[in-house]
């Protein structure tokens, strides 16, 4: 293996040196490709094995959930993966509480899709509506802090809400619409790795830029997460690991069976997500997340490298949509376009430039290793 010096792109996938930690072997194949093979060998099961594991999991969940209103919990964004997961739960005969986080940025169609899905399947929906003004100010604080992962706030709130609700109803299983194989490639530097349970980092950025206490935003510290995980035994399961997950087929199924309607673009269910991935990330941080997504499709055999390169040659966002979002997003955040551009020009900072819980986290993880090894 050699480390990169100049611009280089992997000869197998389309990951390149915009990931500062990427490295290549002598054939020019990147570490992500090698790591993918490793993840696949751990989490990709043969159809028979997957069915056996899934049947055993479902039997345990049903057994544990006897006499309860719900035996599992799942989050739904209105996108393909989470919608398909809800559909699967029905097929498996489970009784989930379906949870949705309303952060104020959902497209109208996403709201319609979610309502439609739960009504058709006869499931209960719990929608956690964030205090918009507080959340807006928190997002502004993240923008002013100039940190990379603006979406950390939403991801944190979703995870915290799922654990809170699971705890409230005595549910032991969070069945997520995720798949560790088809989402395997995502560089550590392209997100904040501890975002789902580092409340210290959120508080630090809030204190530095927003300067008032957090009142309503769902926070989950690493200790609280450890309590849910170790004491309350709440497990997080990547449900789509257990089925042959092909996105195109899943989409067809939810369209036919649930009346789900397409948004016309990846992440178009949330305006802030599409704007973040289509404008803020590439412009300010030089990151085109499509590379990771397309690379995963290549290595999992769903797309050729040529098709991926063709896709990458297209603009990240359609001109008309971008123009619309450039007007809408600053306005919704309560700042002028000029102020937004000033923020875009601030030099990027790392999440670790602000206080984090890393010392405590490492201490607890080491202790856990020593006790439970
Ligand atoms: Zn590669």
Concise overview:
This protein has 15 helices and seven strands.
Count of alpha/pi helices: 15
N- and C-termini, Cα separation: 31 Å
Q: And the CATH topology?
A: Rossmann fold
Strand content: 5-15%
| Whole-number total of structural domains | 1
Encode the helix/strand succession as letters. Answer: EEHHEHEHEHHEHHEHHHHHHH
Please state the average pLDDT score.
Answer: 93
Residue windows where pLDDT falls under 50 for at least 5 positions: none
Query: Could you tell me the number of beta strands?
Result: 7
What does this molecule look like?
There is one protein chain. The chain starts with a strand and ends with a helix. The chain has a 3-stranded parallel β-sheet with strand order 3-4-5, with helices on both faces. The chain has a two-stranded antiparallel ribbon with strand order 1-2. A two-stranded parallel ribbon has the order 6-7. The chain has a single domain (47-353), classed as Rossmann fold (3-Layer(aba) Sandwich). The protein has helices at 31-43, 47-64, 80-91, 108-121, 132-145, 152-168, 199-210, 222-231, 247-258, 271-285, 290-299, 305-313, 319-333, 337-345, 358-372; strands spanning 2-3, 23-24, 72-75, 96-102, 124-129, 173-176, 235-238. The chain has 15 helices and 7 strands. The protein is mainly α. The model has no long low-confidence stretch (mean pLDDT 93). The longest helix has 18 residues, at 47-64. It is globular and about 55 Å long. Bound molecules: zinc ion.
């Amino acid at each position: 293996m050699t480390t990169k010096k100049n611009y280089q792109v992997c000869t197998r996938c389309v990951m390149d040196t915009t990931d500062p930690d990427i490295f290549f072997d002598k054939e020019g194949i990147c570490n992500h490709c090698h790591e993918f093979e490793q993840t696949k060998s751990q989490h990709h099961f043969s159809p028979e094995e997957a069915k056996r594991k899934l049947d055993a999991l479902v039997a345990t969940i049903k057994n544990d959930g006897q006499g309860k209103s719900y035996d599992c919990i799942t989050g739904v964004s209105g996108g393909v993966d989470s919608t398909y997961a809800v559909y699967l739960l029905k097929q498996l005969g489970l009784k989930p509480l379906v949870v949705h986080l309303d952060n104020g940025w959902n497209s109208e169609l996403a709201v319609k899709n979610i309502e439609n899905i739960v009504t058709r399947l006869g499931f209960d929906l719990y929608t956690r509506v964030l205090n918009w003004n507080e959340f807006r100010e928190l997002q502004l604080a993240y923008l002013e802090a100039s940190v990379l992962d603006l979406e950390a706030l939403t991801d944190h709130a979703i995870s915290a809400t799922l654990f809170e609700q699971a705890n409230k109803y005595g549910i032991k299983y969070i069945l997520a619409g995720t798949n560790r194989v088809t989402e395997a490639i995502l560089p550590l530097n392209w997100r904040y790795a501890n975002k789902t349970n580092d409340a210290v980092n959120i508080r630090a950025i809030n204190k530095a830029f927003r300067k008032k206490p957090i009142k309503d935003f769902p926070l989950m510290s690493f200790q609280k997460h450890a309590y849910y995980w170790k004491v309350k035994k709440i497990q997080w399961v990547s449900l789509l690991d257990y089925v042959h997950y092909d996105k195109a087929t899943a989409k067809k199924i939810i369209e036919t069976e649930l009346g789900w309607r397409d948004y016309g673009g990846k992440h178009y269910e949330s305006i802030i997500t599409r704007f973040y991935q289509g404008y803020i990330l590439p412009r300010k941080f030089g990151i085109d997340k499509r590379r990771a997504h397309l690379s995963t499709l290549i290595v999992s055999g769903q797309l050729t490298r040529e098709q991926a390169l063709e896709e990458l040659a297209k603009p990240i966002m359609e001109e008309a949509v971008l123009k619309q979002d450039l007007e809408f997003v600053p306005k919704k955040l309560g700042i002028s376009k000029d102020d937004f551009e000033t923020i875009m020009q601030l030099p990027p900072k790392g999440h670790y430039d602000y206080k984090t819980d890393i010392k405590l986290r490492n201490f607890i993880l080491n202790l856990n290793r020593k006790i439970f090894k």
